[in-house]
Predict the structure.
Amino acid sequence: MESNRSFFVQLQVLTKRMVLRVVRRPLAELPNLIISAFFLFVYDGALGGVFGGTASGTPFDFANGNFINFILPVSIVSASLSGAASGIYLVEDIESGVFKRYQSMPISRWAIILAPMNVGALRVLLQAGLILLIGKFIGADPEVGNVGFLIVLSLAFIWGMGFAGYSVAAGVKSGSSQGAQAATFLFFPAIFLAPTFVPREQLKGWLETAAAYNPTTYVIEGMRSVMVQGWELDILFRGYLAATSFAVITLTLAVISARKATEKA
Amino acid sequence: MLAVDVKNIKKTFVTKQETVEAVKDVSFQVEQGEIFGLLGPNGAGKSTTILMLTTLLSITKGEASILGLDIVTKDKEVREKIGVALQDTGIDNLLTGKELFFTTCRLWGYSKKDSEKRTMELLELVGLTEAADRRVKTYSGGMKRRLDLGLSLVHSPDILFLDEPTTGLDPGSRRVLWEEIKRLRDNGVTIILTTQYLEEADELADRLAIIDEGLVVAEGTSDELKASIGGDVITFSFENDSDLKNAKNVLNDAIEDKDQLRITVENGAAKIPSFINDLNKNGIIVSSVSASKPTLDDVFLEVTGYRLEGSAGSDSSNELEVK
């Protein structure tokens, strides 16, 4: 019989298997998507009246007349946290013994580790994409045109991969799906110690300092730059730099912990 | 060439709190085409031994080879030759049996077309064709074990490692799996299985090793092991604990087993009267006595000093009871 054991075939087969798992547990996908959409509607409903069109000409006119454009990045960042599911997928395989089965076969260990991250990436793209569609439907209109949506999506993707790496590292280190799940608690400091509702200049005291050290700040500001301000390349660059740095650090941690997990005891 | 050659392997786990010698010194050889059983209680070191031989765990000391391939230096080649169904190798419950076989075939390098063909062959082989499109979470315990067995056969391995393949199964499902294991052996597959069931070891294993506390304490065919303890097993029961203790002083070679004494002698039935006489002379009242041919259970008791949990006790088929 013909034999093809290339890395890419293995990765594709393992990714497909994991996609099937995700598709067969649709309810597990809903909470994060609903929370992200909820943020969009609630924040727009609660604050859109104050900071939207009626703020024109006042000191609160930071949304340039369209609060959806301003708040949409917060929901997108929230949606990109769905990448953290990668760690949960991987640890579920470790806990169930499926991981051990694959280890007993001549399969690339990197294919075993990368498959859940692939699915995490797909999840981020899907959830962030859906939130963008909802945003577009309720009035989001990037200042730089529709290409702004793609920029926001790309930033969300990189940021989500950072969370995927973090959850894989945390999950493998703890050896339990609860450990991987705990990674999502980062959500709160990540999203609320940032210029979530107003620009950074309007934050005060310790929150302003915390936001300056929070990489989420730069990702949100990068997204907002194309949504609200136009082509502000330095802000956009800082957004990509923050997201990429976070992703590189956490993916390195994921690789180190995964390598330890696949070594023989 | 030997299928499996294990020489003095040892496994020590070192943690911050303690050092555990899970396998102290295990050696055995397995010929091609035989079923070799590793019999022992939980924690004896059976599964650790299997994990080392299947290249999933490093060896602390000693050496082992599979079909002449060193398991440390040739681990990748070894994995090509072996099939593995371990106690804790999992099955993806969200996929169907067919999807699992297809995925595993693809991972072993079969093309899509060949994977489809092999999937149907294996579903047929393990009797799961009708359940092929059902998700595994709906399978019974026995079906899952058969699926697990089938998954370990995807690449037609020369050697199959089965770690407690029937644990938790009802007697009917256990019988079905035994027949499949025997059929594989008859088709030339070498099988190394661990079990804590005496009946399973007796029924399946062409040869077996008894492992206790990380050591091989006996090895041979079931008949050889039974013959090694010699003659018949005489079992005495007493009215009270005091008689049991006193009897132990009279019958020096006897082994205490719960509230009974057991002694192995040649021509047991003929010697019962003289034993009872000796005990009576010492004021000990025997409530019942029986003689039977040794069973694996007796062999286990003889070499380890205790019984396997849940074992049936002596084989009543050859029992002669005297009241």
Notes: Chain A has one domain: 7-262. Residues 163 and 186 of chain A are 9 Å apart (CA to CA). The radius of gyration of chain A is 20 Å. The mean pLDDT of chain A is 85.
